[in-house]
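The pair is set out directly below:
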Amino acid sequence: MPSGSKIIHLIGPGGAGKTTSGEILAELLDRDFIDLDRMFLKRQGHIASFIDAHGYAAYARRNVALYSEVRAAIRTPAVIAMSSGFMTYPAMVDESYPAIRAAIERDPCTVLLLPSLDVNICVEILVPRQLARPYLDADEAHEERRVRERHPIFLELACQRYIGLEDPASVASRLAQMLGCQ
């Protein structure tokens, strides 16, 4: 890992293991762990309710602002589990977003987590995981559409990738090795 790198970003679709593996990775590396969805819940409340009341674009703008606040406040090395859609927002969602997204994408300490390169396998694995999340109020058709729409965007990202279905502890260990942290 590059010296002086404070943040490891874990990006990818919901249900890919960013939070579960990220918590273990942070513990392995003695870093703080930040989950952007949990921060949103803490500050703004239920994500689905916020989106229902204000719209998805307002949610995305608030999430970009929240990330900027969190990033500015980091004083010690950290692992951040990004919201599933963060890297897929439209460029015009916020004037700062294109630069933030580009910086995350090109950071050597950013890793995309995917269960598979095959979108159908991703749907099969990720949709049930998303349906189990109480803060989304998700339905199967919506989640499948979301996975299918975002999958090609994730595949185009120019960052490190972890593709697989190992248990979270193994994923965290592999991520630490990928990033040169062990």
